[in-house]
Design goal:
Largest sheet of chain C: 7 strands, mixed
Structural class of chain C: alpha/beta
CATH architecture of chain A: 3-Layer(aba) Sandwich
Oligomer: heterotrimer
Strand order of the largest sheet of chain C: 3-2-4-5-7-6-12
Number of strands of chain A: 9
Strand order of the largest sheet of chain A: 3-1-4-5-7-6-8-9
Number of helices of chain C: 13
Chains: A alpha/beta, B alpha/beta, C alpha/beta
CATH class of the largest domain in chain C: Alpha Beta
Number of helices of chain A: 11
Radius of gyration of chain C: 20 Å
Order of helices and strands of chain C: EHEHEHEHHEHEHEEHHEEHEEHEHEHE
CATH class of chain A: Alpha Beta
Shape of chain A: globular
Radius of gyration of chain A: 18 Å
CATH superfamily of the largest domain in chain C: Thiamin diphosphate (ThDP)-binding fold, Pyr/PP domains
Order of helices and strands of chain A: HEHEEHEHHEHEHEHHEEHH
CATH architecture of the largest domain in chain C: 3-Layer(aba) Sandwich
Helix content of chain A: 25-40%
Helix content of chain C: 40-55%
Distance between the termini of chain A: 37 Å
Distance between the termini of chain C: 42 Å
Mean pLDDT of chain A: 97
């Protein structure tokens, strides 16, 4: 469903994720795209890389625009058309958050895909509220001093029917989650971690390895929350220290051993909390 | 109006944009050799047949095996397995138990009576092979499959050479050997046993009668220690000892046996003697870990009660009549030379000691019998000299195996047989040698994405308990059960061999990998050269190649 | 001719808007409540609840999201209506450009209200006038009846030129004032306004996308196309109005001239102020003063030719702006001056900021201003009338 000739950087796993998501969703799908790398991948006029119709909206309005599209299709009797949002973390965690929260509160029938590359990478790499602690960006050259917003938990607090995290390195898991989401009605959100090659300072062939490390170290746990209640941790073991993940990325190059230890502790805390929820729900 | 509105809608595809122009390097499916393949004396396509095992296509596995070696049940038992030493998996946890898997497939073939595929159309030429040991039998097989008529000469009653008369049945059961030899004979080989090419006339007749001759008479002449009086009844050559015991006869010897030597033959003698209830010590020049015998042979021998006295040289023997022999020994510093078989030793003063014994079996190696041949062929350092095509100084006369090398391994001999067949065919067809291409670099561990190979313990070789081993000539090593063989095959990295896992296809962000004709093709119109396909390849089957 | 099938109802201006919307059969609406627009929203919800209006109504968390949803719904090929006021309209500003750029024929009703800060709830047209560069067609209404009629007409205009339409009427004076309103029969409106069937819309069968990035040349061409559509909108408005008039007997034109024959002074204004001026003109005409009214109904695109025709030979023009653009003054004043510029014997244009912030402008005050300007040279700047 994604065509060759798109404008993603060589080795971009956002394009890769899109490819597998679209193939899973199939042709009876429409997308709303917020300005983002994803939107640029869609193509420049008059060419589209997407075999499905894509409506490009403004940065803050994805969830609202998708709501309008959903309702308009409903009036035409097209309840079986899946409406999806493809947005970045800036358009989701930050400027689009209000519209997203409202759409989730209304339980609009859509799947929201947040391609989380932990910053405004399309504009050259500035921090967003998805940027993790101490990561260096164009607007936090010495490292971000605040932690990453936990979107999935916030969505769970809305009692959203389905919220999940996913990774481009775990394609089978991603596809399964998309299929699962497609079978649910109401608002569903899947946050896909997208290691950004220029933004994170990675070689062209390293995005998958990095996404895998994010999961293996517990920095980005793969999990699902249904109705805000039922937690499922998809990969239940951490096999590597967080240091292994941090050391390969230029955005963390300035970190001291103490900084890395602090991040490890933070990851440990989040992991423990998640594991407890997964075990008790 | 409509035109103006139309202008904000897309109506074309990005496929018109050829992003391949962004690229500096293009992935290529290269099928580089696996290190096991490079290390294998028969170049046995190991990764390929293990993959067939993994797919539970056992007959396919066997067909791949016999392309290079008609004796997988033999090598599956006694190969010195250089493949396992080179296995990339060894860098992650432990090497693949390749020999166990080979035996698994080889035994399946025997159990199921699988026959070799049809031979090629018959050719007019007949080839003489002198020597029915591993090199000769292998050459016979390969030549026969090419369509040549083959006449095989051997001076023994039965074919097999060292396989039959040298290696004891607890390592290589005779029924296994017979089955694999019979399969070759079933291809239609003219066998002349009990026939010795013992004179120059015999040799000249061969040359005249046959289109080509392959000499593979092995190394049957024992080396002798000057310290020993070989006329004494208490000194026995290892070859004699093994030939007698392997034929079911009992060698005449006392209760306390000292075996001299550190190679496989020494181990075979020692372990055979233990099975006959003897008290056995092995003395050798090398330290334990430097012994030329395979490591597990040494360990198994010691398990079976053989006493190893390593780093020691025999100086003299005193026959004390009824009190038996007294062996005067001294500890030595052993230093291996550049070539196999070359070494130097220095006695360590003040370390002299004695050993009591009744019989001494010398197992210090054997030389080829070149007394007849040296009048016709060039020889060098006791070996027949051959060129890169295994041809001797006489056109049309080829030689291989122990006759031409100090690499005294059965699998090396099989490799000589295979190569000789190829070269004889080239000689007769007057085609040029293919050895002009530069040898390809083997796949290295860093080309393998080990994420796709989770840690897994190597299959454990199960053995008959020591107590049973000491009283029986039955096979010591047990076969790998089917489920364990399957699990072991799944551990294989398949270095350099595409397993059609689809990773390259699945991980391409640009849809530039196409499935085609059962494999893959890179669409260079769109490939941006990121290298993700190479990075995520579990087998190292793809590499990036710079483009201008 | 008279529309005999209509029903006369006593309606507030906002309820008249709701009726206009209901009769236009929109498929989709997205509304966020704000004083003084809320009666429109609530009435539409009431209609929907009773099954009298078959439309999806979205009530999101902001006007911005409301307009965002309107644009995407419109691109899906359905008829879209919404309503707002002051802050809400300003919050939508970005999406107004977006809707116009995507040529989405949305109809939006705005109730003119003061823009904060400071807070006020009074009639003032600065909210909508300040959206003049967004690419929306803008119409101003003087009464509840006109608002109802204009909503129906607006869909016809918008869908004909693929451009969104913004209609405004003043807070409270119109929005909450009760007046008898002729509500046309549904059949009449259906005859006038066929279902919306665009050539291009988001559709999985077709697969086309909309809104992708363009080159500078494409962008420039796109803006030229928008400009051309705007010029076509003048005729489209005239023709849609005339067609409506033929059906129901009520037409408004793009501008209206009232008692302008031989006028030595024409007062130009928009919205509810027109009613007050109409009264003052009648008073002045009765006392022998040759004064007329020019009501600007279509503010975007500005009907320049019609304005120049109407004001040719008039010695003095008095513009009453119930809006304020700090630094230039009254927006209509500035626009009219530029429109009339270069006319042979162009009228002297006197600009007054009249009723800004909802300050009451009585007919007497207007007569006073009329007298004052006839004796004075016009000021370049707009003058505060109180």
């Amino acid at each position: 469903m994604l065509r060759s000739g798109h404008a993603a950087c060589p080795g971009c796993v956002l394009a890769l994720s899109l490819r597998h998501i679209l193939n899973t969703l199939g042709p009876e799908t429409m997308a709303v795209a917020a300005p983002s790398c994803a939107a640029l991948i869609c193509g420049a006029q008059p060419c589209s890389s997407m075999k499905i119709p894509v409506y490009q909206t403004t940065l803050e309005s994805s969830a609202a625009a998708a709501s309008g599209l959903r309702r308009a299709l409903d009036t035409k009797g097209k309840q079986d058309t899946t409406v999806v949002v493809i947005a970045g973390d800036g358009g989701t965690y930050d400027i689009g958050f209000q519209a997203l929260s409202s759409a989730v509160e209304r339980n609009e029938d859509m799947i929201y895909f947040c391609f989380d590359n932990e910053g405004y990478m399309n504009t050259g790499g500035q921090k967003s509220s998805a940027t993790p602690l101490y990561a260096s960006t164009g607007s936090t050259p010495a490292g971000k001093l605040s932690k990453k917003k936990n979107l999935t938990e916030i969505m769970a607090a809305h009692e959203i029917p389905y919220a999940a995290t996913a990774s481009a390195a775990h394609l089978a898991d991603l596809v399964r989650k998309v299929e699962k989401a497609k079978g649910i009605r109401g608002t569903r959100i899947i946050t896909v971690l997208i290691p950004c090659l220029p933004g994170w300072g990675l070689p062209d062939d390293e995005a998958i390895a990095t996404a895998r490390l994010a999961v293996d170290t517990g920095v980005f746990p793969l999990y699902e929350v249904e109705e805000g209640q039922r937690y499922t941790l998809n990969q239940t073991t951490r096999t590597r220290p967080v240091k292994d993940y941090l050391m390969t990325q230029k955005r963390y190059r300035h970190l001291s051993a103490e900084d890395r230890d602090e991040i490890q502790l933070m990851v440990d805390r989040n992991w423990t909390r998640l594991a407890e929820r997964s075990a008790t729900s | 109006m409509n035109q103006a509105v139309r202008a904000i809608w897309t109506h074309e595809s990005t496929e018109v944009i050829k992003t391949g122009s962004w690229r500096l390097a293009l992935p290529a499916y290269v099928n580089l050799p696996a290190p096991c393949h490079k290390a294998c004396p028969v170049e046995g396509n190991i990764a390929v047949w293990i993959q067939s095992v993994e797919n539970q296509e056992y007959r396919d596995a066997w067909l791949t095996l016999i392309e290079n070696n008609p004796f997988p049940a033999v090598t599956g038992r006694i190969c010195h397995r250089p493949c396992e030493d080179s296995c990339n998996r060894g860098q992650l946890d432990e090497p693949i138990a390749i020999r166990c898997l080979e035996r698994f497939v080889g035994d399946l073939a025997i159990d199921n009576g699988w026959a070799f595929p049809e031979t090629a159309a018959s050719k007019t030429e007949t080839i003489a092979i002198v020597g029915g040991g591993p090199a000769g039998l292998a050459a016979a097989f390969h030549l026969r499959r090419m369509g040549y008529a083959v006449t095989l000469f051997d001076d023994q009653q039965q074919l097999g050479g060292v396989l039959r008369y040298g290696i004891p049945p607890y390592r290589l059961p005779k029924d296994i050997l017979d089955a694999e030899i019979q399969r070759i004979l079933d291809l239609g080989i003219d066998v002349r046993t009990n026939t010795r090419i013992s004179s120059q006339t015999d040799f000249e007749n061969l040359r005249a009668e046959f289109a080509a001759v392959f000499m593979a008479t092995g190394a049957a002449v024992p080396k002798r220690l000057p310290q020993l009086d070989y006329s004494q009844p208490w000194v026995i050559e290892s070859a004699t000892y093994l030939e007698q015991t392997n034929s079911g006869d009992h060698a005449q010897c006392g209760e306390r046996i000292v075996v001299i030597g550190g190679g496989s033959a020494a181990m075979d003698v020692a372990r055979t003697a233990r099975r006959q209830g003897k008290e056995v010590a092995v003395i050798c020049l090398e330290t334990e870990t430097a012994m030329p015998a395979q490591r597990d042979e040494v360990l198994e021998a010691m398990d079976e009660g053989v006493t190893l006295i390593d780093g020691v040289m025999l100086r003299s023997v005193t026959d004390r009549a009824l009190k038996g022999l007294e062996l005067a020994c001294v500890k030595v510093e052993f230093e291996a030379g550049a070539e196999r078989g070359e070494f130097s030793v220095n006695s360590i003063a003040g370390t002299e000691f004695t050993i009591d014994a009744d019989t001494i079996v010398a197992a210090i190696g054997q030389d080829p019998d070149i007394t007849t041949l040296q009048d016709s062929l060039d020889v060098e350092a006791g070996l027949v000299r051959v060129d890169e095509q295994q041809q001797t100084s006489i056109a049309g006369v080829f030689a291989g195996g122990d006759l031409v090398t100090m690499q005294r391994f059965v699998t090396v001999a099989f490799g000589f047989g295979k190569r000789a067949a190829t070269e004889i065919d080239r000689y007769l067809r007057s085609s040029t040698s293919a050895s002009d291409s530069t040898p390809e670099q083997a796949v290295s561990t860093d080309m393998i994405n080990t994420h796709y190979h989770p840690q897994a313990a190597r299959a454990k070789q199960q053995m008959v308990p020591v107590a049973e081993r000491q009283v029986s000539f039955d096979e010591v090593e047990l076969a790998l059960p089917g489920d364990e063989a399957l699990a072991e095959s799944q551990r294989c990295f398949s270095c350099g061999n595409c397993t059609f896992c689809d990773n390259c296809f699945d991980y391409c962000p640009d849809m530039a990998i196409k499935r085609e004709n059962g494999g893959y093709r890179v669409n260079d119109d769109y490939c941006k050269g990121c290298g993700l396909c190479v990075r995520e390849c579990p087998t190292g089957a793809i590499v990036m190649r710079q483009e201008r | 001719m008279k529309d005999t099938s209509s029903t006369r109802m006593l309606l507030t201006g906002n309820h008249a808007v709701a009726w206009g919307a209901r009769l236009s059969r929109p498929n989709f609406m997205a509304c966020y409540p704000i004083t003084p627009q809320t009666p429109i929203l609530e009435k539409l919800m009431d209609f929907q609840m009773k099954g009298e209006l078959d439309a999806e109504i979205l009530t999101p968390e902001s006007e911005h999201s409301a307009m965002a949803a309107c644009v995407s719904a419109s691109m899906a090929g359905v008829r879209v209506f919404t309503a707002t006021s002051c802050q809400g309209l300003l919050l939508m500003h970005e999406k107004l450009h977006y809707a116009a750029g995507l040529r989405a024929p949305i109809v939006m009703f705005n109730v003119n209200r003061t823009v904060a800060a400071p807070w006020g709830f009074w009639p003032d047209q600065t909210d909508s006038v300040s959206q003049r560069d967004t690419g929306w067609i803008q119409l101003y209404s003087e009464s509840g009846q006109e608002s109802l009629d204009t909503v129906i007409q607006a869909f016809k205009i918008a869908e004909r030129v693929s451009t969104p339409v913004l209609i405004s009427h003043d807070a409270f004076y119109i929005s909450h004032a009760l007046e008898p309103v002729e509500v046309p029969a549904q059949a009449t409106v259906d005859q006038y306004l066929p279902p919306y069937e665009p050539e291009l819309f988001l559709d999985t069968e077709r697969g086309e996308s909309v809104g992708n990035v363009v080159s500078p040349e494409m962008f420039c061409q796109h803006r030229k196309d928008m400009g051309q559509a705007m010029q076509l909108a003048i005729a489209a408005t005239q023709e849609s109005d005339a067609e409506w008039e033929r059906l129901v007997g009520r037409g408004y034109g793009v501008i209206e001239t009232y008692r302008c024959d031989d006028a030595e002074l024409v007062i130009v204004t928009m919205g509810s102020m027109c009613g007050t001026v109409r009264h003052a003109v009648d008073e002045m005409r009765a006392s022998g003063r040759p004064v007329g009214l020019l009501k600007v109904r279509l503010f975007r695109p500005l009907p320049s030719a019609a304005l120049r025709d109407a004001l040719a030979g008039v010695p003095d023009v008095l513009v009453l702006d119930r809006n304020f653009s700090p630094g230039t003054g009254g927006v209509l004043h500035q626009e009219l001056k530029s429109t009339l510029f270069g006319m042979p014997e162009a009228p002297r244009v006197h600009g007054y900021l009249a009723g800004v912030g909802g300050v009451n402008m009585s007919p007497g005050k207007i007569e006073e201003l009329a007298d004052r300007v006839c004796q004075a040279e016009p000021s370049i700047q707009s003058v505060w009338a109180g």
